[in-house]
Amino acid sequence: MADKIHLLPDHVANQIAAGEVVQRPASVVKELLENAIDAGSSHIKLLIKDAGKTLIQVIDDGEGMSTTDARLSFERHATSKIKSAEDLFLLHTKGFRGEALASIAAVAHVELKTKTEMSEVGSIIKIEGSEVVEQEMTVTPKGTSVAVKNLFFNIPARRNFLKSNPVETRHIIDEFHRVALAHPNVGFSMFNNGAEVFQLPASNLRQRIVGIFGSKTNEKLVPVKEETPIVKIDGFVLKPEFAKKSRGDQFFFVNDRFIKSGYLHHAVLAAFEGLLKDGMQPGYFLFLEVDPKTIDINIHPTKTEVKFEDEHSLYAMLRAAVKHSLGQFSVAPVLDFDRDKNLDTPYEYKNKPVGIPQVEVDKDFNPFKENSGAGQKNISFPFKREKGASWEGLYAGLEDQNKIISKEFNLEDIEFESEEVTGSLFTESDTFSSQNTFQLHNKYVLISVKSGFLVIHQQRAHERVLYEELLRNITVQEAISQQLLFPLVFTFSKKDVKMLESFKEQLEFTGFAFEAFEDDSITIKGIPSGIKDSDIKHILDHLLDDLNNDLPDNGYSQNDVLAKSMAKSLATKTGVALGKEQQEHLVNSLFACKEPSFSPGNRPVFITIPIGDIDKKFY
Ligand code: ADP
Ligand code: MG
């Protein structure tokens, strides 16, 4: 048999390596930004086009490369950062594998321009799929510019695998945030499709955080500082009242490198114990400095995990440091780190609702609406179905009912996540014997039907009703909006403004009307009808939480998340007393829904208690 083993050509090996290093445009952004940091730059500029699919360019004013180095930098295992395996343990640079540029050049069109301080002229190199197509002298300022175009041009499968532009842009912004936060002493700017997204001058950490997350962040920051022989801790946590439902604003940096660590996260959570409502997540920006010899940075290029030599001590110190800060800034009354948690009294603000900024607007005056919704306790959208529609009609058969509604609401166009209900819960003969409803514990609405009675979860029922209504509005693209006399202005982080802007159209179909998307604020001139303007901030915050937590890729599911989130914030909650009419309206609207049995979160909306079960109790 002939010999069968041969060495893979370099460009093939590079493409394989690229699979590991370059997963999406954001991975390229990370590598290029880190190279610019390693080059000792004082200002780094990131340019993105088409979510990085068309162009990713990083321009720095760092040390640059000689002509020979410029060419070598694209070779695999070409690095100036380590010479031997031992150096790994003393590493202070970001990169060290010498694989990033080679990998990127294997799957894109790359143009590198670079010049060192000393040389008169610089070099330009163009590489397409590992092939050098041009190398020349050029006039260029000191520093390096790497332009990566048409990522995955030669791997269509990978290109098709990329997510929608908003999703890929979000990943890029996340990487940008991580690098920019880790290096506040370096200036950064970012441009997306020609528009400036961030302009972050060299500053300190506090200013950097504020530059990224918006001016309102400043007053939320509580400094954390601690120095022990094992670790130096520095940074900020957000005051507990600014905790969020999402894990968005949580950053650990170890030796200026962004890392993820469930263990350290737990230490911070433990420090916040008793200060947060259930399920709320604290925000933090914490920098740990340890001897590089005591950590093992995962050699995998894209992983952000780190192993520490003395995890337990680190945990205890981090927890104590955060707790101490919360105490010192009279955020928490506990200064004693090791006290028994059973002795802790519940803090006053534990149950304090998060304040919603109140806007002074004469709510009763609305020139565009005959009947102002102000002061109305429960929010409901105007339903086309008439109030008091006959119960018999509703229960004559859900199948038919669905058809009628489908026609009216165009629901065929909408695909619901949960399964189609059948009418099986109700028998043919299952009609309401009376229209009387009854509210139990401000939580359930009871209504008797022939076969027994229904117990309806009022909050979930309303969520279902609103969800279908919202989804319908977004899908068929019509909205009922109430114009505001005075536009509302809300402050958000730049990232959140971008996120909301990418949902502008869908939000407009729910009834929002926007006047402007500014740098870190949004001006709203119209809101969904029936909603109070004082609820808007809360609704948008909740929506951002949900979108940041889980942003699906395709438009349809994005609309679904949006409708779910808004339905949830708008729904009349458990605990609200409903008048007879409201109860009846809720039941009517619920059974006009396509899928009345389950809430948008797929929980049961109502149960039936058959008369037979009651009879059995009276044996
Ligand atoms: P690594 O960063 O792991 O060394 P890379 O493939 O990212 O590997 O880069 C290879 C080499 O190219 C680096 O070691 C560095 O010497 C040089 N290099 C890359 N980017 C820059 C830059 N922006 N400025 C100066 N030198 C750079
Ligand atoms: Mg590198």
Explain this structure to me?
The chain is α+β, with helices and mostly antiparallel strands. The chain folds into 3 domains: 10-202, Histidine kinase-like ATPase, C-terminal domain (Heat Shock Protein 90, 2-Layer Sandwich), CATH 3.30.565; 212-328, Ribosomal Protein S5, domain 2 (2-Layer Sandwich), CATH 3.30.230.10; 437-607, MutL, C-terminal domain, regulatory subdomain (Ribosomal Protein S8, Chain: A, domain 1, 2-Layer Sandwich), CATH 3.30.1370. The chain has helices at 10-21, 25-38, 67-72, 100-106, 156-161, 165-182, 205-213, 262-271, 311-328, 391-395, 398-409, 458-476, 494-502, 504-509, 536-549, 555-570, 580-591, 611-617, and strands spanning 43-49, 55-60, 109-115, 122-128, 131-138, 143-149, 187-192, 195-200, 221-227, 232-238, 250-254, 257-259, 284-289, 295-297, 306-308, 432-440, 444-449, 452-457, 481-491, 513-517, 521-528, 606-610. The strands form 5 sheets. The chain has an 8-stranded mixed β-sheet with strand order 5-4-3-6-2-1-7-8. Helix 6 packs antiparallel against helix 7 (205-213) and helix 15 (536-549) crosses helix 16. It is elongated. The N and C termini lie far apart (87 Å). 38% of the residues are buried. Bound molecules: adenosine-5'-diphosphate and magnesium ion. Magnesium ion binds next to helix 2.
Q: In short, what is this structure?
A:
The protein is α+β, with helices and mostly antiparallel strands and 619 residues long. 32% of the residues lie in helices and 22% in strands. The protein contains 18 helices and 22 strands.
